[in-house]
Amino acid sequence: MGYMDHVHRLNRHEMLGFQPFFVAETKVGWVRKAFAEQLAEYPEVFHIDTGTVSLARSLSTFDDRSAALAAVVPKLRAAGLISGRDRDEPYPVAEIPGGEALAVVDRGAATEFGLVQTGFHLNGLVQTSDGPRMWVAKRAANKTTYP
Fold first, then answer.
1. Of 51, 77, 112, 142, which one's alpha carbon is 20 to 30 angstroms from that of 85?
2. Is-contact 102 23, C-beta < 8 A?
3. What pLDDT sits at residue 5?
């Protein structure tokens, strides 16, 4: 299987098992339906409607939303609903990378909330006595997400 075969396979995904996740009326991610059902147990934080998940409207400020997420994520992790470890790294909850942050959540929970995440991937082209060589980055096999 060639490189582009992998790219095409990764870009084929079925969204029927997901619901959009809204914060302050802005779609910021997609959550699995099974996860959404579990979020319904926290009505002070999440509002579950037909086909959508939202942070409660009563959480109207950045600080309120961030504090509510910070309080509920450890409970979700303890229940086995969040697979990523606690990274103690605030990650912006935004419509697009670099967009206005509507809240922050621990980066280890960003995947379950379907947030678009960014990172660095660096390849290098070097000239050697044998000619050009390319260094291709490889993600570590022990990463908690997408090893």
1. 51
2. yes
3. 85
Nearest residue to 109 via CA among 59, 69, 61 = 69
DSSP string, the chain: --HHHHHHHHT---GGGEEEEEETTEEEEEEEHHHHHHHTT-TTTEEEETTEEEE-TT--SHHHHHHHHHHHHHHHHHTT---SPP---EEEE-SSTTS--SEEEEGGGTTTTT---------EEEEETTEEEEE-----TT-SS--
Residue-wise pLDDT for 35-78, tens only, equals 999 999 999 999 999 899 999 999 999 999 999 999 999 999 99
pLDDT digits (tens, 9 = 90+) for 126-136: 999 999 999 88
d(CA 62, CA 100): 10
CA distance 93 to 81: 19
The letter for the amino acid at 10 is: L
